[in-house]
Amino acid sequence: MTQGMPATPDTRRSPGWTLWLFRVAVALELVSLLLQTGTAGELLEGVTSARVLHGGGSTFVHVFGLVTLVAAILVWRPGRGPWWPSVAGLVLLLAGFAQSAFGGAGQLALHVPVGVTLVVLATWLLVWSSLRRPSR
Length: 136
Hints:
This protein is mostly helical.
């Protein structure tokens, strides 16, 4: 830095608290999605009591999807981070609702692939946020 020149902020990095919040939110979303895969497996095995757990688990997917979206927006604004995690968070939330609708309608040909896509997207967001360094 040249003397007399103000330091310019690194706009490629987010403040630590926004990135930390995003990591926690997307981790909770991923855990809820993975628990859903477990109850789905029980349903496929014929465990009828798993239906209540699987249906109730969708609430957590929706809540943590919304929290992930809000956290992604905070990474972007005011966090000075990239905008695309906000779009990915919105896709995660909307796809979660579509996933529930497909499952409720018994359309497993759509329900299962959307579920796999949700797990992949949440995993990708968690890996991305874990590799990202916050600004100081």
